[in-house]
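Figure caption, in words: inputs first, then the predicted bound structure.
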Amino acid sequence: MSTEWRTWSRASRCRPQRIARPRDESEVVAELGRAAAAGQTVRAVGAGHSFNSLVCTDGTLLDMSSCAGVERIDPDASTVTVRAGTSLAALNTALHRAGMALPNAGTITSQTVAGALATGNHGTGLAHGPFAGLAVALRLVTADGTVRDCDERSDPELLRCARTSLGALGVVTRVTVRVVPAFRLRSAPGSRPLEELLDGFDEWAGSADHVSATWLPWLDNASTRALHRTEDRADRGARLRPLLSSVEEVRCGLAGLASRLGPGMVRWVSQTLPPYRPPASYVDSSFQAFSFPQPVRFFALEHALALAGVPDAVRELRGALRRFGLYSPYALLMRVGAADDAPLSPAYGRATGYVNLTVPRSARYVELLRMVEHVLREHGARPHWGKAHTATAEILRPRYPEWDTFARMRAELDPDGRFTNDHLARLLGEPARMRAGR
Ligand SMILES: Cc1cc2nc3c(=O)[nH]c(=O)nc-3n(C[C@H](O)[C@H](O)[C@H](O)COP(=O)(O)OP(=O)(O)OC[C@H]3O[C@@H](n4cnc5c(N)ncnc54)[C@H](O)[C@@H]3O)c2cc1C
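Bound structure (flavin-adenine dinucleotide present):
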């Protein structure tokens, strides 16, 4: 009997006929041969931290977590070569020991390198593109079992497409990523009226190496966080932060449970339980400062907008969220990033502002997510590939100037749709030969 597989958030589940755990490239090649002989489709999975059905299959699921480990850190070239199933946490630890670091990162480190690449994972900072933009070389096994290496010189077009591929081009087994000397960051929290933040959004976005802002719809003020590079040593606030963040996550989780008693309960619980007080200002290693524990499972939506379009989009959202009748206990999160050139990167071709909404795992929040998605879509947003969304190829294609570049690469590397599933068919259309066979 087949075993059920579920995402971290439990938002999606499937029953693959086979779950394989290849330990190296040769085992990946063997699994692809086996799947082809059995007429099965194949999906690779990293840590299962996407909030949709990207990974789901009723064929073969390739769990890449055993294809892990750092192969080489090259301080002269400022690169690290790592196996695709390595978690970002393990990568951070290995880099830290070698006096190196990733220049930027998102809020957790459980994801695998390949999963983070494939979905356009990002942190925040106007000088920093998505994680995938750091990849200077990678190796993938394509549908017919061919092992392809690409880098910026040998095959820049394949590299660009494979950097953010949704797992549609092949199984990535190895990646070389640009790194920097290890550094520390000072975290400085702040608060200001949301309207003031939006009025000066561009200026605020460039005011520190990494900035983020959160806002609860029933409040007038937004909370801000700036991370500045510093030579100062890590201090006591750094040790407290994981604890305080966990308490805040639990508080949101409890408010989410209370929402089942009535929509007004979210605001009541959020205001009654002691509010989150971030450590005033503290210093920590970069990779510790970027991330925080998120022990409570949730659903999330995130969209990438042109940076200049964020203020109007958030102003419209403010009204829509206040009218909706059900609040999320989690604050709306705003982050920023540099443009990217991978054809399917949500940051393709434009300085980007990311707007994220997290909600409790309850069916009553699905409508709220749909409403927010609708508002952001009207502002030219592109959905985060790893988060909840309902976009289709028809909606996405006009938003990606190099959509056809990726489509051609997919048709060349996977003409029979070995790596497709229902979710990808909705997003990217059906692969070349399936269409021709109709
Ligand atoms: C608590 C939490 C916090 C998050 N915070 C952020 C954040 O701060 N910023 C952000 O941008 N995102 C964030 N995300 C989203 C998450 O980082 C991405 O969705 C990412 O894909 C998850 O990586 P994964 O290893 O779990 O990939 P999975 O979800 O397992 O897979 C994602 C995609 O990658 C493909 N894939 C995986 N491995 C391979 C491989 N070896 N070869 C080819 N394709 C492969 C899969 O087929 C699938 O298409 C967060 C998610 C959670 C649950």
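The first strand starts at residue 5 and ends at 6.
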